[in-house]
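Hey, I'm writing a tutorial for new members on how sequence and structure tokens pair up, and I'd like a real worked example in the thread rather than a made-up one. If someone can provide the structure for the chain below, I'll link this post from the tutorial.
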Amino acid sequence: MEIRRAYKVELDPNQAQRRQLLRHAGAARFAYNWGLARRIGEYRGTGKSSRAMAQHRELNALKKTAFPWMYEVSKCAPQEALRDLDRAFAAFFRRLGLKRQGKLRGPAGFPRFKSRKRGVGSFRLTGKVVVEDTRIRLPRLGWLRLKERRYIPPGAKALSASVSERAGRWFVSVLVEEEIAPEEATGPAVGWTWG
């Protein structure tokens, strides 16, 4: 049976890698804020707003002229940030529906702009993520050292990696797909029998 599980471990980046991590987090935050501003503007103008993939295509078209610095980071960071924005709006509309039914108290929680004042932020990368005993390879970032050895099980297929910063320390959470064998029950049955 295959299951999905996430493992979080601290990274040990050098100064050049820290700068790259900051660039990726900044690009993800910028894409999220840009997408949110575009959606608000579109909704005020037309009553409808675009979704993540349409916004990603629009942002890619603007990269060459308006945002050439975005070529320094992986394309996954802004793309996944726009998908996060889609999920934030889906959660908002779900809570808004519950509020209208009287099943939710308090605000519905409209998506907010991300600020550097609340922390550097995080970003998610998909694609070719390779995990070894003491290091991890992330798209566009290369090999990064891990603080703990053999924390992520060998042979597990890495699906994505989320990188975040807390108090100057960088962490990676790797979503893996593992094969586990179900254990057979041994011993007597536990519980009541009615007869």
